[in-house]
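Look over this one:
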Amino acid sequence: MRPDHPIVLITGASSGFGAATARLLAAQGCHLALGARRVERVQALADELAKAHGIRTFAGAVDTRHTASVDTFVAEAAEALGGLHVLVANAGLASGTFKLWETPDEDLEAMMRTNVEGVVKTIRAGLPHLRKAGWGHIFFIGSVAGHQAYEGGGVYCASKHGVKAMAQSLRLEVCGEPIRVTSVDPGLAETEFSNVRLKDDSKAKAVYQGMTPLSGGDVAECIRWCLALPDHVNIDELIVKPTDQGSAFKVHRKA
């Protein structure tokens, strides 16, 4: 049975989609377990939201590339908050714009271990708590790159195609249980994503010049809406792009 105030675990909650989702769901009365490698950021956010909305929060360090880190974070969050109902497997990144044969091991491993392995580890650790609670919702954060490949994004696109496949597989595997599975797949969104990918703030800013990108809050609203729907409704896949973006590689830019 759906609780009045679900307990939501979010990875990658220190910025971008994760932080925006935490803010929006806190305003809805959800209790929050926030994790990221930058633990000081999630701790500050957790403290702020607990004070502003009177919710219970837990903040912890988590590196989703490492099984022990994920298992510890999820277990401590569930113990501190009395269980878990919702998982938002948000931690992810792009690193570089290399042609496939030029991709350094460091960037290859960062994307595949975070975007694919990290999602598996988060769900593997969190799902037993949702089953114990008797009601749950799992969110994958995919990308339009999981639907369309583009030059200079081979490994990142592969990782997001992997996210799409995992979401579709899990949807089948938990069918019949009171657990919904949703993949939210954004297009161009102005967060720290391009700063991390390009390692150059001026180049990152240029990605969004002449067009209006999505914000973290826009993607958070998609998550809030899917979560709020009646229990018999499951949004399997939600592709969301800014109006100025027609595809992964077609963007209208004003002069």
In short: Strands lie at 7-11, 31-36, 57-61, 86-89, 136-141, 179-186, 237-240. The CA atoms of residues 168 and 236 lie 8 Å apart. The radius of gyration is 17 Å. Residues 7-93+112-143+160-187+215-240 form a domain with the Rossmann fold fold (CATH 3.40.50.720).
